[in-house]
Design a protein that fits this description.
This protein has 72 residues and is mainly alpha-helical. The chain has a domain of 44 residues. The chain contains two helices and two strands. It has a two-stranded antiparallel ribbon. β1 and β2 form a beta hairpin. It starts with a strand and ends in a 17-residue tail after the last helix. One of its GO terms (molecular function) is hydrolase activity. It holds the Pfam family 5_nucleotid_C. InterPro entries: 5'-Nucleotdase_C (IPR008334), 5'-Nucleotdase_C_sf (IPR036907). It comes from Xenorhabdus nematophila (strain ATCC 19061 / DSM 3370 / CCUG 14189 / LMG 1036 / NCIMB 9965 / AN6).
């Protein structure tokens, strides 16, 4: 792994951003639980609710990903 094209210094400290699930060790990311000085922000669900409230109505991207084969 590299940061700014330089190898990660295994003895250095880095600040990372993660959602609460990962920060608490979810999906086997247990190393995140070793972090110090956490900074908490808006919970994920609140951020999503706010986004949809501000951007509504949200447009369907119409990617034709679902094909009805019942008539075939």
């Amino acid at each position: 792994m590299k940061i700014n094209s330089k190898p990660v210094d295994m003895k250095a400290k880095y600040r990372v951003a993660a959602n609460e699930y990962l920060a608490m060790g979810g999906s086997s990311f247990s190393v995140f639980k070793e972090g110090t000085d956490p900074v908490y922000s808006v919970p994920d669900v609140d951020a999503v609710v706010k986004y949809f409230a501000e951007k509504s109505p949200v447009q369907d991207p119409k990617q034709n990903r679902i094909i009805d084969i019942s008539a075939k």
